[in-house]
Amino acid sequence: xxxNITLTQSGTIVNIGxxxxxxxxxxxxxxxxxxxxxxIKITKVVNxxxxxxxxxxxxxxxxxxxxxxxxxxxxxxxxMFRTRTKSAPITLTYDGVNYNVGMEKLxxxxxxxxxxxxxxxxxxxxxxxxxxxxxxx
Length: 137
Fold this sequence. Notes:
By secondary structure, this protein is mainly beta. It contains 1 helix and 8 strands, in the order βββββαβββ. Strands 1-2-5-8-7-6 form a 6-stranded antiparallel β-barrel. Strand 1 and strand 2 form a beta hairpin. The chain is elongated, with a radius of gyration of 20 Å.
């Protein structure tokens, strides 16, 4: 498990111990059929020149990474997911590069353990999320 993913929003920082990171880039193409007077169908492919970059991240929120507790990190991620305004963008820092992203999907699963749990503060949470790069904030 590494900690090379950081999400930041309005001064709130969440460090994620990643287990897998999948990055997908898509260049949507549109196929247009143009009516013709002949029996020949004319088809054009239009490149929208709009690359969509998506990250699927699996990781762990734990008390061992960063200064916040796992529960605080979980609550901060929930807040980031609910806050979808241009005035409060989410910044993904991945391998030292910053990206403005929107959180499309967030799945948090509690990992109960016998050791280290204090009240409502479990040792860790499994996290799965999908982030999409946004051009303008």
